[in-house]
Amino acid sequence: MSKDHQVRAKKHLGQHFLTDENIAERIANTLSYNGYDHVLEIGPGMGVLTKYLLKKDITTHVIEIDTESVAYLKNNYLNLANRIIEKDFLKYNLKEVFEDQPFAIIGNFPYNISSQILFKTLEMRDQIPEFSGMFQKEVALRICSKEGSKVYGILSVLTQAFYDAQYLFTVPPSVFNPPPKVDSGVLLLKRKDNYQLPCDEKLFFRVVKTGFQQRRKTLRNSLKSFDLSDKLKSNLIFDQRPEQLSVQEFIALTQLIENDN
């Protein structure tokens, strides 16, 4: 694959192609490869990470929408050819490939859709026990941050409700073609043993998203749209701002709202 193609693909897809073999191997080694038989790489490009996944005792699939990248992969990774999904990850129903089988996700994610990739993973959490990937460093840190942090927000709470999130390492711009203007960060998500929430999950998502839409206000003000009873609004939890609440406290808050009469 030519450098010109990589630049064109980057402009079209928001992709920066990893060129450092050591970092590619390091990313491939972040997953445990236990408890599932399949791994899906998102946006493999020219396969710098793919080659290390193919060495693992796992069935590797890749999903790629760039036609030149697909052609390159088919020509250079013959043992992968029938497991290349030429689709848009965000729009494709992955059950067509995996049915109800568990699988892990890994990749050097395009910055412009990385949060959407994570949200789709959360929707499919029943099938995805592990997730490892490279994000813009700022986004990776936000996903893994804890309450009280200035970057703690919707991504942090919704991800950590179902997964243990760990920031692994930082990747400099110099190992990409073309180099991004910011550092990248690799994180690992491991699904919690008990990841079923003891509250209405749709309500939980709504509470978290609504609360953080006005993160500087107290929850009493930011959650006005819920039409809460005066008795509930007198609870001290509503004196706090959303960034002060842990995941467990957001679950408790959802339970309070759920039971409000």
Automatic annotation (TrEMBL):
<keyword id="KW-0808">Transferase</keyword>
<dbReference type="InterPro" id="IPR020598">
    <property type="entry name" value="rRNA_Ade_methylase_Trfase_N"/>
</dbReference>
<feature type="binding site">
    <location>
        <position position="43"/>
    </location>
    <ligand>
        <name>S-adenosyl-L-methionine</name>
    </ligand>
</feature>
<comment type="function">
    <text>Specifically dimethylates two adjacent adenosines (A1518 and A1519) in the loop of a conserved hairpin near the 3'-end of 16S rRNA in the 30S particle. May play a critical role in biogenesis of 30S subunits.</text>
</comment>
<dbReference type="InterPro" id="IPR023165">
    <property type="entry name" value="rRNA_Ade_diMease-like_C"/>
</dbReference>
<feature type="binding site">
    <location>
        <position position="108"/>
    </location>
    <ligand>
        <name>S-adenosyl-L-methionine</name>
    </ligand>
</feature>
<keyword id="KW-0694">RNA-binding</keyword>
<dbReference type="Pfam" id="PF00398">
    <property type="entry name" value="RrnaAD"/>
</dbReference>
<feature type="binding site">
    <location>
        <position position="18"/>
    </location>
    <ligand>
        <name>S-adenosyl-L-methionine</name>
    </ligand>
</feature>
<comment type="similarity">
    <text>Belongs to the class I-like SAM-binding methyltransferase superfamily. rRNA adenine N(6)-methyltransferase family. RsmA subfamily.</text>
</comment>
<feature type="binding site">
    <location>
        <position position="88"/>
    </location>
    <ligand>
        <name>S-adenosyl-L-methionine</name>
    </ligand>
</feature>
<feature type="binding site">
    <location>
        <position position="16"/>
    </location>
    <ligand>
        <name>S-adenosyl-L-methionine</name>
    </ligand>
</feature>
<dbReference type="GO" id="GO:0005829">
    <property type="term" value="C:cytosol"/>
</dbReference>
<keyword id="KW-0963">Cytoplasm</keyword>
<dbReference type="InterPro" id="IPR011530">
    <property type="entry name" value="rRNA_adenine_dimethylase"/>
</dbReference>
<keyword id="KW-0698">rRNA processing</keyword>
<dbReference type="GO" id="GO:0052908">
    <property type="term" value="F:16S rRNA (adenine(1518)-N(6)/adenine(1519)-N(6))-dimethyltransferase activity"/>
</dbReference>
<dbReference type="InterPro" id="IPR001737">
    <property type="entry name" value="KsgA/Erm"/>
</dbReference>
<keyword id="KW-0489">Methyltransferase</keyword>
<protein>
    <recommendedName>
        <fullName>Ribosomal RNA small subunit methyltransferase A</fullName>
        <ecNumber>2.1.1.182</ecNumber>
    </recommendedName>
</protein>
<dbReference type="GO" id="GO:0003723">
    <property type="term" value="F:RNA binding"/>
</dbReference>
<feature type="binding site">
    <location>
        <position position="64"/>
    </location>
    <ligand>
        <name>S-adenosyl-L-methionine</name>
    </ligand>
</feature>
<dbReference type="InterPro" id="IPR029063">
    <property type="entry name" value="SAM-dependent_MTases_sf"/>
</dbReference>
<keyword id="KW-0949">S-adenosyl-L-methionine</keyword>
<feature type="domain" description="Ribosomal RNA adenine methylase transferase N-terminal">
    <location>
        <begin position="23"/>
        <end position="193"/>
    </location>
</feature>
